[in-house]
Design a protein that fits this description.
By secondary structure, the protein is mainly alpha-helical. The protein has helices spanning 11-38, 61-80, 87-109, 111-114, 120-142, and strands at 43-44, 58-59. α1 packs antiparallel against α2, α2 runs antiparallel to α3 (87-109) and α3 runs antiparallel to α5 (120-142).
């Protein structure tokens, strides 16, 4: 977001990355909270073996659906605020937010289990960075900015 104030900054392109990072965080929050509360069958993303709700790297159908809704909702807010230009940018941000959330679960199931220093806060920071960078690369490749 800070880069958008620079002279000659590619503002629409940068805003897609900004929006995707927020979409990913809302997707993560929705998925975590709904999945822990209402997830019926929680499995580890790497093995699909059943695990208790709240396990790092675990997913459920209910939590994943909530993640998709959270990502779409944040992308819709960004669209309504004029930070995204059109339905294609909205769809890209929505999908990237969900993908980044699933990647965050994968990081939790693999790296975070091995490395004690990799805290939830660091994994969350990685998730938002992944979302922003993935959205920027895809927006450029698809000609959305």
């Amino acid at each position: 977001a800070v880069l958008t104030v620079l002279p000659s900054a590619p503002v629409p392109w940068l805003l897609i990355g900004f929006a995707a990072s927020f979409a990913a965080k809302l997707a993560d929050t929705f998925g975590s909270e709904i999945g822990k509360r209402w997830g019926r069958h929680t499995v580890l993303l790497t093995s699909f073996q059943p695990v208790p709700p709240g396990t790092e790297g675990a997913i459920s159908l209910e939590g994943t659906a909530a993640s998709a809704i959270g990502s779409a909702l944040m992308a819709l807010v960004m669209l309504a605020l004029g930070l995204l230009q059109g339905g294609s940018a909205w769809l890209l941000v929505t999908l990237v937010g969900l993908v980044a959330t699933l990647l965050e679960s994968l990081i939790g199931a693999t790296l975070q289990r091995r490395w004690g220093w990799l805290s939830n806060e660091l994994v969350n920071a990685l998730q938002t960075l992944i979302a922003a960078l993935l959205a920027l690369v895809l927006a450029e490749a698809l000609g959305l900015a």
